[in-house]
């Protein structure tokens, strides 16, 4: 528009929609790879530091975020608690290939 030239893509351009879809697909793949690497290195750190218990904040239902690292896990033994509550967990069963761990509820912490 500034140079009085026609735009590369017109309003109903299929090639623009294809480029947008390809970008979204690639962005999603990069995002999933990033999440997988963060989970792997968080688990590797927990093993390296021999951490067997950790504090976490309840996100919802049985989903928690561990303190000090970007790791979110499900805790099947977690009793019903309000989001934002802090809990202490026992960690075990770390699997680096699956990027999972077993977390068991120990106690509720005061905020």
What does this structure look like?
The model has no long low-confidence stretch (mean pLDDT 93). This protein starts with 13 loop residues before the first helix and ends with a strand. It is α+β, with helices and mostly antiparallel strands and 111 residues long. It is elongated, with a radius of gyration of 22 Å. The chain has a single domain, classed as Nucleic acid-binding proteins (OB fold (Dihydrolipoamide Acetyltransferase, E2P), Beta Barrel), CATH 2.40.50. It has a five-stranded antiparallel β-sheet with strand order 3-2-1-4-5. Strand 1 and strand 2 form a beta hairpin.
Question: Care to give the gist of this entry?
Answer:
This protein is an alpha+beta fold and 111 residues long. It has one helix at residues 14-48; strands at residues 53-60, 63-66, 72-74, 86-95, 100-109. The longest helix is centred in the first third of the chain and has 35 residues, at 14-48.
Rounded mean pLDDT score:
93
Structural class: alpha+beta
Instruction: State the separation between the terminal residues, measured CA to CA.
Output: 57 Å
CATH homologous superfamily grouping: Nucleic acid-binding proteins
Radius of gyration: 22 Å
Largest sheet features: 5 strands, antiparallel
Q: How many strands? A: 5
Tally the helices: 1
Q: What's the CATH topology name?
A: OB fold (Dihydrolipoamide Acetyltransferase, E2P)
Helicity range of the residues? 25-40%
| CATH architecture call | Beta Barrel
**Strand order, largest beta sheet:** 3-2-1-4-5
> Domains counted in the coordinates: how many?
1
**Parts with pLDDT < 50 across at least 5 consecutive residues:** none
Q: What is the CATH top level name?
A: Mainly Beta
SSE string, helix = H, strand = E? HEEEEE
Which percent range describes the beta-strand content?
Answer: 25-35%
Global shape: elongated
């Amino acid at each position: 528009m500034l140079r009085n030239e026609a735009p590369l893509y017109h309003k109903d351009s299929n090639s623009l929609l294809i480029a947008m879809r390809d970008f979204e697909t690639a962005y999603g793949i990069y995002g999933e790879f990033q999440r997988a690497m963060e989970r792997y290195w968080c688990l590797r750190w927990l093993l390296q530091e021999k951490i067997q218990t950790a504090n976490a904040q309840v996100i919802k239902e049985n989903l928690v975020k561990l303190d000090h690292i970007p790791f979110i896990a499900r805790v099947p033994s977690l009793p019903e608690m309000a989001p934002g509550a802090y809990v202490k967990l026992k960690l075990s069963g770390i699997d680096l290939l699956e990027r999972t761990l077993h977390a068991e509820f120990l106690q509720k912490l005061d905020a």
